[in-house]
């Protein structure tokens, strides 16, 4: 038995038994292989279902505001950053929150595996190796080969705030944020980028899984559900899809913590992160702002400076 | 005859530009241009907003989706906002939305931002002229917010 899992269970048991929290939000084994599912443990008897491994891909911060009472949450780096943004925006009460921090080595990109072996039937993980039995064949992967794209450039694998840390911390170089993926797209011509996004947007079926998986999409009424004004007509075509995706990205400007939950939740494999990463880069370059790296501070669009760049103005 | 038709068609093309103007500066600037009889192309459709900070980025997106060929957004000069900081917060949004839309392949000149004060009637006319020229050069907006090859919106 993994020591981290043991410690998480022990901590959860204690917190629940002592009545410090009403619910522990963590991960349990999902019904599909390589998929953990969020779980809500209300009594100390249930803690043995808690797990922690490379399949814990959901961002649990999504559920915190919706869960009443005092809660403990198992948080990776990106979960804790999302919590920090939610706290900055007064969506959470810090005293109601107990953060069990876990350093994260990254999560598995199932789509990559599924593309090679078909539907995943069985899988096991041990010592950084993943053996998969699929519909179209079996294969063994090194974890680094199938690490999610988000996790490959992750600069905050350790929680930025926590009440208790479980397991080791991970050393990461804290040099300037790298945006190689965004730059690669930027270096293409306008028409090439237009083609790329047209293709991506034609894949979208507007199921809103990205919105629902996002820890920071918490509007009571999303603009896509709004009847007056009707921002979206209800038709599913790439123009409408772009209106939705671009609108959503604008709402996440200076807030997105780049956890990649939207991309992983997408059933169609739309490159949603391409938009979010571009926004993250712009905010970083223009306003030197990274979202959710501390409890203090404000989201980038809630602040301003007299010297903000304004090259975008017309020349007249 | 065919040639003549082409010519009249070319002449006919006038872009539709949605202009979001702040009540205190740019709208008054447009007014001044009118009072001063300064000529500018009749391509803009003015939408008066209380402050440039009131402009939701979705307005810009929706205007493009609803068939505008271009969007012009104008407010008070930084430091002159009637509400002290409305245009400062707006400036960040504008910079980001412009950059994002260029990234997804919208032409650079479709969306224009400027600061025009209530005293700059002449400059307002210049801005509209400039924007109209650039949008006309691009032609109708058939890019990313329109589906021209069938399967258009169901409304």
From TrEMBL, chain A:
Gene Ontology MF terms: iron-sulfur cluster binding; metal ion binding
Keyword Metal-binding annotated: yes
InterPro entries, per database record: 4Fe4S_Fe-S-bd, 4Fe4S_Fe_S_CS, Helical_ferredxn
Keywords from the named record: Iron, Iron-sulfur, Metal-binding
Residues in 4Fe-4S ferredoxin-type domain copies: 247-278
PROSITE patterns: 4FE4S_FER_1, 4FE4S_FER_2
Protein name in the entry: 4Fe-4S dicluster domain-containing protein
Organism: Desulfosporosinus lacus DSM 15449
Automatic annotation (TrEMBL), chain B:
Keywords, alphabetical: Iron, Iron-sulfur, Metal-binding, Oxidoreductase
Pfam families documented for this protein: FlpD
GO MF entries: iron-sulfur cluster binding; metal ion binding; oxidoreductase activity
Domain F420-non-reducing hydrogenase iron-sulfur subunit D: 17-139
Superkingdom of source: Bacteria
Keyword Iron in annotation: yes
Name this protein carries in UniProt: Coenzyme F420-reducing hydrogenase, delta subunit
Species of the source: Desulfosporosinus lacus DSM 15449
């Amino acid at each position: 038995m993994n020591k981290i899992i043991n410690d998480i269970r022990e901590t959860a048991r204690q917190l629940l038994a002592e009545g410090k929290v009403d619910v522990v939000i963590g991960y349990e084994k999902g019904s599909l292989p390589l998929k953990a599912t969020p779980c809500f443990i209300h009594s100390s008897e249930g803690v043995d279902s808690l797990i922690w491994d490379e399949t814990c891909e959901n961002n649990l911060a999504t559920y915190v505001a919706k869960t009443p009472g005092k809660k403990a949450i198992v948080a990776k780096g990106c979960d804790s950053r999302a919590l920090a943004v939610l706290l900055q925006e007064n969506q959470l009460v810090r005293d109601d929150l107990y953060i069990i921090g876990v350093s994260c080595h990254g999560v598995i990109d199932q789509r990559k595996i599924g593309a090679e072996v078909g539907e995943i039937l069985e899988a096991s993980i041990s010592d950084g190796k993943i053996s998969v039995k699929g519909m179209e064949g079996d294969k063994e992967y090194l974890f680094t080969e199938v690490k999610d794209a988000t996790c490959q450039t992750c600069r905050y694998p350790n929680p930025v705030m926590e009440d208790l840390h479980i397991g080791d911390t991970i050393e990461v170089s804290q040099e300037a944020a790298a945006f190689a993926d965004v730059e690669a797209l930027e270096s293409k011509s306008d028409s090439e980028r237009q083609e790329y996004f047209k293709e991506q947007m034609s894949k979208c079926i507007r199921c809103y899984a990205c919105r629902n998986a996002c820890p920071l999409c918490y509007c009571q009424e999303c603009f896509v559900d709004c009847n007056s004004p009707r921002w979206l007509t209800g038709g599913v075509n790439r123009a409408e899809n772009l209106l939705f995706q671009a609108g959503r990205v604008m709402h996440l400007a200076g807030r997105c913590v780049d956890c990649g939950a939207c991309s992983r939740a997408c059933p169609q494999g739309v490159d949603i992160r391409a938009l979010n990463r571009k926004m993250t880069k712009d905010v970083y370059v223009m306003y030197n702002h990274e979202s959710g790296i501390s409890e203090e501070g404000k989201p980038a669009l809630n602040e301003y400076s007299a010297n903000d760049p304004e090259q975008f103005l017309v020349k007249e | 005859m065919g040639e003549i038709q082409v010519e009249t068609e070319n002449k006919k093309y006038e872009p539709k530009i949605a202009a979001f103007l702040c009540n205190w500066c740019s709208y008054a600037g447009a007014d001044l241009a009118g009072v001063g009889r300064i000529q500018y192309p009749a391509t803009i459709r003015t939408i008066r907003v209380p402050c440039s900070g009131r402009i939701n980025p979705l307005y810009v997106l929706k205007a493009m989706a609803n068939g505008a060929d271009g969007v012009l957004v104008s407010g008070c000069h930084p430091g002159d906002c009637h509400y002290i900081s409305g245009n400062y917060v707006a400036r960040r949004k504008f910079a980001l939305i412009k950059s994002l839309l260029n990234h997804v392949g919208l032409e650079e000149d479709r969306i224009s931002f400027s600061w025009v004060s209530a005293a700059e009637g002449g400059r307002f006319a210049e801005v509209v002229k400039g924007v109209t020229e650039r949008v006309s050069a691009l032609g109708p907006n058939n890019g990313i917010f329109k589906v021209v090859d069938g399967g258009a919106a169901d409304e």
